[in-house]
Amino acid sequence: MSEQESAALVSHEMAYAATREALIAAVDDAVLFPAVTAHGSKQTNRFSIKSAATGSFAGLKVGSFWADNDALGLPRHNSLILLFDQQVGRIDWVIEAGLVNAYRTAAADAVAADMLARPDASTLAIFGAGNQAFYEVMALRRVRPITEVLVVARDADKGAAFVARLQEQGVAAARASAEEACRRADMVVTATPARAPLFDASWIGPGTHVASMGSDAAGKQELPPALFEQASLYCDLPAQSVIMGDFQHFAGDRSAIVAIGDVLQGRDPGRTSADQITIFDSSGIALQDLCIARHLIAMKP
């Protein structure tokens, strides 16, 4: 399936459904294998391989980041999903999924927010002004009554362009400093390649839901570790989050980290009070890619 075909079929609704299935499968019968991270001939060009298997399907996703593609007018991120024929072991489907990956990543944010954010959460702070940040906002608008988006961006021009892009979609958006955005927000989402905390833990008020969407490799970091001591901790896959997610920087009792799939299955209560601070650490799991691939195949004309 070509990039053009998959891009025409994907939607936030479909990505949400597929990702919800994936996060539940992650705590049920699935096996998720350790992620492989590597680089191209230039070390700034990176790729990762994530794979998984269930009782009925198995496969892998290759995700790449080529740093200089902007200058060529090409996306820096790309994605390829491979599904195996379970009977003979040959590749059954090859799906180009660059845009699909943006939807799939944002869908995990939305599924977690649906479980953990306060029902009345209406002010969103978004760190980052890249392509992924846009899809995070669009996905979250489907699950919470967002009336204001505060954009935190290091590059003033990119921040202004991102605000304009959101406004074109009917979103009330404005630039803000990191401290202002955090103090005013009901939800804080980070979608950056940062390697140091983006804000101070003291800026996060009671009842806030925080999601780290950009920490997906060893050494990356978006959240202040001091915040972990004040919050309830959730992620897509605990074993992976402590290696390549933001929780690699958590020095406390790692048994306190809960898979969001357990909340979806009713095994963990999730948010239990209006003042509770919740954190979702998403480093991305292969099941998201495999489940969304199966949805795409089912929709293919």
UniProtKB/TrEMBL annotation:
Report the Pfam families cross-referenced here: OCD_Mu_crystall (PF02423)
Q: Which InterPro entries match?
A: NAD(P)-bd_dom_sf, ODC_Mu_crystall, ODC_N
Highest taxon, organism lineage: Bacteria
Name listed for the protein in its UniProt record: Ornithine cyclodeaminase
Question: Organism, per UniProt?
Answer: Sphingobium fuliginis (strain ATCC 27551)
